[in-house]
Specification:
Largest sheet: 13 strands, antiparallel
Helix content: 10-25%
Order of helices and strands: HEEHEEEEEEEHEEEE
Strand content: 35-45%
Number of helices: 3
Structural class: mainly beta
Radius of gyration: 18 Å
Distance between the termini: 52 Å
Strand order of the largest sheet: 1-2-4-5-6-3-10-13-12-11-9-8-7
Number of strands: 13
Length: 275
């Protein structure tokens, strides 16, 4: 039997103490039993549940079973069924392993008795050692020099859009973003907000040709290299790599305002002829 680990990350607040900010309320999960959580933030939307939301909530649920000195270093998730933003989502966490410096978790997100998303994620106690970055941030004006734009479908995040690259898509493949509420000092919360943001755009937009277009996300992975504050500006940069067999694949990077590489991500999505 797996020993129960204390829950030293910031616990979900009492439902009567909502933050009144939708982003923070979305990440407030109700604990309904051991390793079982529920997202009660619901709203009406004409689309399927946004994948970044369910991924961020799944990471939050996993993190609430992890000691505070361990932070997520990677996650890998599969979008299995469309979700419904107007329904609560239940998250079941399986504690696969707790070692000397790593903790592994699996999370399934459930609506209406069916799994809509599953995730494997790993947490690590940071160690001292070489800190070296090979990839430089792409050239981009500072956010205060860029035009504001509205990030679609997400709460409490503001964007700034530098010119180019790519076509004039509704959400660019390179942009600045930050959370409008202050997020406090819990690095798990900042990692969850980064996960929430990471699915909102697609590097595949640059490959749309008027006949084929990017579609629903299939799977998504994020690697967290260095802690980053998501209530400060971060630069998101996506790069398309391939489309074939009705699927497309792209990678992305997240840089903080000083140019440090905070995270990398990769996603595969449908890429099919337009109806």
């Amino acid at each position: 039997m797996t020993a129960q680990i204390p829950l030293p990350h910031t616990p979900p607040p009492d439902p009567d103490e909502r933050s009144m900010d939708p982003l923070l309320d979305m990440l407030d999960l109700e604990q309904i039993d051991t390793d079982l959580y529920r997202g009660t933030f619901v709203f009406a939307e004409p689309y399927s549940l946004y994948g970044g939301q369910v991924a961020a909530q799944a990471l939050r649920a996993a993190g609430l079973t992890i000691p505070a000195d361990r932070l997520p270093h990677s996650l890998h998730g599969y979008f299995l069924r469309p979700g419904d933003a107007s329904r609560p989502t239940v998250f079941r966490v399986d504690r696969d392993r707790d070692g000397g410096s790593f903790s592994a978790r699996r999370v399934v997100a459930i609506q209406n008795g069916a799994v809509i998303f599953n995730m494997s994620t790993s947490f690590h106690t940071a160690k001292s050692g070489q800190d070296r970055q090979v990839t430089d941030p792409p050239p981009a004006p500072r956010p205060e020099e860029c035009q504001p734009f509205t990030l679609p479908r997400v709460f409490s995040l503001e964007g700034r859009r530098p010119e180019g690259p790519g076509p004039d898509e509704y959400c660019p493949i390179r942009f600045w973003a930050r959370s409008t509420p202050q997020l406090g000092e819990d690095p798990l919360l900042h990692a969850c907000v980064l996960t929430y943001l990471s699915d909102i755009t697609s590097g595949l937009f640059a490959l749309e040709d008027g006949h084929n277009r990017a579609g629903a996300s299939l799977d998504h992975a994020v690697w967290f290299h260095r802690p980053v504050r998501m209530d400060d500006w971060v630069l998101m940069d996506n790069t398309p790599h391939s489309v074939a067999a009705g699927r497309g694949w792209y990678t992305g990077s997240v840089f903080d305002g000083s140019g440090r590489l905070a995270a990398s991500f990769a996603q595969e999505a449908l890429f099919r002829p337009m109806r």
